Amino acid sequence: MKRFISILLAATAALSIATAANAHDHGDKDKMKDKMKKEMHPSIVNIAANNPDFSTLIAALKAADLVSALEGDGPFTVFAPTNAAFDKLPKGTVESLLKPENKQKLVDILTYHVVAGAVYAKDVVTLDSATTLQGTDVTISTNMGTVKVNDATVVMTDIKGSNGVIHVIDTVIMPK
C-alpha cells in the first residue's frame, strides 16, 4: 500500500509539473507557430532575399529603407526586376541611386514597382493600368500571351508570399 501511495504521489507530481510547463510554454508555442508560418509562407521580401537573382533589388530596398514596409501585412503586388533588369540601366545608374543623397529618387522608383493588393496573373490580364504606391499608374498590356508593364515584360508570375505576390519583370520601370 505504501508503494502504491508513493507511485500515486509521484505520478501526481509529474502531472502537475507537466501541466505547469505546458501552461508556461503556451506563449512560446504561439511564437513558434508564427515563426513556422513565416518560414512556410515567407513574405515577398524574404522570397526575394533568398533568390540571388534579386540581390540588386534587395540592396535597393535596403538603401531606400523600404524592407520593413514591404514585410508588412500588405497585401502587395511587386513587379520585381531581376539583376539582369538592373544591368540594362545605363552604367553607373544603380550605384548613383544607392547613394544616400538619391534616396528619394530610389524610393520613387521602387514604389513605382508596387501596387496595393494582391493582383494575380489572371487579374493582371484584365487590366490596362494599375496605380502604384508611388502614386502614378503603370500601363499593363497583353499581346499573344505576353504581359507587359510599361516597357517591361513579365517573365514569371504569381510567386505567392504571405503578404502578397511577385511578378518578375525583365526591365526596371521608371516613373514619368
Features:
seven-stranded mixed sheet; FAS1 domain; 176 residues; alpha+beta
Q: Could you walk me through the main structural features you see in this protein, from its secondary elements to its overall organization?
A:
The protein has 176 residues and is of the alpha+beta class. It has helices at residues 2-40, 44-49, 55-63, 67-70, 83-87, 93-97, 103-111, 121-124; strands spanning 76-81, 114-116, 129-131, 137-143, 146-149, 152-161, 164-169. The chain has a 7-stranded mixed sheet with strand order 2-1-7-6-5-4-3. The protein is globular and about 40 Å long. It starts with a helix and ends in a 7-residue tail after the last strand.
SSE order, one letter for each helix or strand: HHHHEHHHEHEEEEE
Q: Superfamily at the CATH H level of the largest domain?
A: FAS1 domain
Strand percentage: 15-25%
Total beta strand runs: 7
The shape, in one word, is: globular
Total domain modules: 2
Reading off the top of the CATH hierarchy, the class of the largest domain is best stated as Mainly Beta
| CATH fold type of the largest domain | FAS1 domain
Unreliable sequence segments: 1-25
CATH A-level architecture of the largest domain? Roll
Q: Nutshell version of this structure?
A:
The protein has 176 residues and is α+β, with helices and mostly antiparallel strands.
List the helices and strands and how they pair.
Layout: H1 2-40, H2 44-49, H3 55-63, H4 67-70, E1 76-81, H5 83-87, H6 93-97, H7 103-111, E2 114-116, H8 121-124, E3 129-131, E4 137-143, E5 146-149, E6 152-161, E7 164-169
Parallel strand pairs: 1-7
Antiparallel strand pairs: 1-2, 3-4, 4-5, 5-6, 6-7
